[in-house]
Amino acid sequence: MCDLMDRKIKAAIGKSPFxxxxxxxxxxxxxxxxxxxxxxxxxxxxxxxxxxxELPAExxxxxxxxxxxxxx
Length: 72
Fold this sequence. Notes:
Number of helices: 2
Order of helices and strands: HEEEEH
Distance between the termini: 16 Å
Helix content: 25-40%
Mean pLDDT: 92
Strand content: 35-45%
Shape: globular
């Protein structure tokens, strides 16, 4: 599911508010990161669910770590 989201966001570059997504690995989990609307956005799949997190730029790394503890 996340790979499809990644392809659709990349295909819409220039037509959407999001930057080109970057895939990163955090504790064995593939997480996609993009920027848009003054925020940092992460999305990832855990089992059969996809999570999209919109986080403030100044706190995004700390908040992502906390979110992954809850929703991994």
